[in-house]
Amino acid sequence: MGQQVLTGQVTFRQLCERLSKDTTVGQADIRAVLYQLADVVAEYMELGMSVDCGELGRFRPTYGSRQVPVGEKFTHEDLRSPKITFVPREKFKEFKYRAQFERISDKKEEEDGASTDSTTEGESEPLGPNENHTGL
Known about the structure:
Layout: E1 2-4, H1 12-22, H2 27-46, E2 51-52, E3 57-62, E4 83-88, H3 90-93, E5 101-103, H4 107-112, E6 126-127
Antiparallel strand pairs: 1-5, 2-3, 3-4, 5-6
Helix pairs in contact: 1-2
């Protein structure tokens, strides 16, 4: 198994600063639009709609529920907390070819005490952005 190697986190403030630098829109306006975007997307999803955010991708709500026996009334109490599914556009799907990954132990292999990986426990094998990732 493999996972992406994260190299840090961009804060909301840093994101707004970068967007302001790359456009003619001020940071305050960018913050206001992004806060409003979150509110509007949530509002539409609450109505059961998916929301297309252009080049970013599409958001849609997904709900699980407990099993309700036949004959019993199904209510909102039977729903689990909503999860948000994000379906990215093509530009995001290409990340796997440029991102850095590392090999990690499979949980089942750890439980069984066996491993088909040549790395020892706790070690990882990093894959750079231009390396072949098909072996993960």
